[in-house]
C-alpha cells in the first residue's frame, strides 16, 4: 500500500489570466463567449486582446477567443439584456458587432477575413460570393454569417422597433431567414427604448469602405433610444464579445 503524502498542497497560480465565460443560445446551439466583454477600446485593439491566452475560470485550462460575427454578437447581447449588456455596455458605451462593408448598392456583413487578419473589401469579390449565397426575403445570406442587404431593404433615421427588426439591415446583421430579426426585436423593444431606434451612418459611398457596426444607447441619444451605427471604426470606448475557441 502506497504511503500517503501528508501536508499542505499549495494552489498554483494560473499561468494565464482567468477569463469568465457566458453561455447563450444561438441558432439552435450553445454559444460560449467572454464575460465580461473585451474593452473598452478600438475594435482592432479589442480583437488583439482577445487573441491572447487565458485560463478557463473553472478548470484552469488554456483557452483562446476569436472575433465574433455580427450575429454572434447580437445573440450574446440579447441574453438577459436588461441585466447584462444594457447596463454594462449599451448605456455607458457601445457594443461593436463586427465588420461590415458599405458600398454604392448596399451593405455587406461579415466579409471573409484574409490570412493577414484584414477583411476582404473588394466589391467584385464580395459580389461574386453572392452567387454562393441564398436570397431570402430580399437579402442575401451565405456561409459564416456572410450576407448582403441593399439600401432599398431598410431606412435610416428614427423608426419604430418593429420596423427596424423587420428591415433588411436587422435581418442581415442577425443573419436570419425569418421575416423578423427576433433578437434585435427584443433588444430594441419599446420596454427598453421608448424613443425607438435611430439608424445612421449607412449612407451610400462611391468606393467600398470597411466599418464596424455598433449598437448603443448612450451619449446624445439618451437611454430612451437605441442607436444602430454604421460608422463605428474609430470608437475608442467600445466593447466586443470574444467567441471561445477550442483549447490549444
Write structural notes for this entry.
The chain is an alpha+beta fold. 20% of the residues lie in helices and 28% in strands. It has seven helices and 17 strands. The strands form four sheets. Strands 3, 7, 8, 9, 10, 11, 12, 13, 14, 15 and 16 form an eleven-stranded mixed sheet that branches. A two-stranded antiparallel ribbon has the order 1-2. Strand 7 and strand 8 form a beta hairpin. Helix 2 crosses helix 7. The longest helix is centred in the first third of the chain and has 9 residues. It is globular and about 75 Å long. The two termini are 38 Å apart. The model has no long low-confidence stretch (mean pLDDT 91).
In short:
By secondary structure, the protein is α+β, with helices and mostly antiparallel strands. 20% of the residues lie in helices and 28% in strands.
Which sequence of SSEs, written as H and E, runs from N to C?
EEEHEEEHHEEHEEEEHHHEEEEE
Radius of gyration: 20 Å
> What portion of residues is helical?
10-25%
Helix and strand composition category: alpha+beta
The counted number of beta strands is 17
Average residue pLDDT: 91
Write the layout of secondary structure elements.
Elements lengths: L20 E6 L2 E6 L3 E4 L1 H8 L3 E2 L6 E2 L1 E2 L3 H9 L6 H6 L3 E9 L3 E4 L13 H7 L4 E3 L2 E3 L5 E4 L6 E3 L1 H5 L2 H7 L7 H7 L8 E4 L8 E8 L9 E4 L8 E3 L2 E2 L4
Parallel strand pairs: 7-16, 13-15
Antiparallel strand pairs: 1-2, 3-16, 4-5, 6-17, 7-8, 7-14, 8-11, 9-10, 10-11, 12-13, 14-15
Helix pairs in contact: 2-7
Keywords:
248 residues; alpha+beta; two-stranded antiparallel sheet; 7 helices; 20% helix
Amino acid at each position: 500500500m502506497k504511503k500517503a503524502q501528508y501536508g499542505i498542497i499549495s494552489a498554483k497560480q494560473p499561468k494565464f489570466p482567468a477569463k469568465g465565460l457566458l453561455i447563450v443560445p444561438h441558432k439552435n446551439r450553445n454559444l460560449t463567449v467572454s464575460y465580461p466583454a473585451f474593452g473598452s477600446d478600438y475594435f482592432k485593439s479589442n480583437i488583439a486582446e482577445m487573441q491572447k491566452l487565458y485560463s478557463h475560470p473553472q478548470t484552469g485550462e488554456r483557452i483562446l477567443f476569436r472575433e465574433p460575427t455580427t450575429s454572434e454578437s447580437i445573440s450574446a447581447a440579447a441574453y438577459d439584456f436588461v441585466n447584462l449588456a444594457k447596463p454594462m455596455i449599451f448605456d455607458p458605451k457601445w457594443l461593436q458587432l463586427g465588420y461590415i462593408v458599405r458600398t454604392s448598392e448596399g451593405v455587406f456583413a461579415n466579409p471573409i477575413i484574409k490570412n493577414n487578419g484584414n477583411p476582404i473589401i473588394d466589391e467584385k469579390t464580395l459580389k461574386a460570393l453572392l452567387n454562393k449565397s441564398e436570397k431570402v426575403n430580399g437579402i442575401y445570406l451565405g456561409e459564416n454569417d456572410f450576407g448582403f442587404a441593399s439600401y432599398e431593404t431598410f431606412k435610416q433615421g428614427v423608426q419604430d422597433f418593429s420596423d427596424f427588426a423587420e428591415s433588411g439591415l436587422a435581418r442581415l446583421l442577425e443573419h436570419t431567414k425569418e421575416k423578423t430579426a427576433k433578437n434585435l426585436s427584443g433588444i430594441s423593444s419599446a420596454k427598453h427604448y421608448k424613443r425607438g431606434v435611430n439608424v445612421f451612418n449607412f449612407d451610400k459611398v462611391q468606393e467600398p469602405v470597411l466599418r464596424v457596426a455598433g449598437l448603443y444607447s448612450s451619449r446624445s441619444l439618451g437611454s430612451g433610444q437605441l442607436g444602430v451605427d454604421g460608422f463605428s471604426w474609430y470608437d475608442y470606448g467600445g466593447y466586443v464579445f470574444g467567441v471561445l475557441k477550442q483549447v490549444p
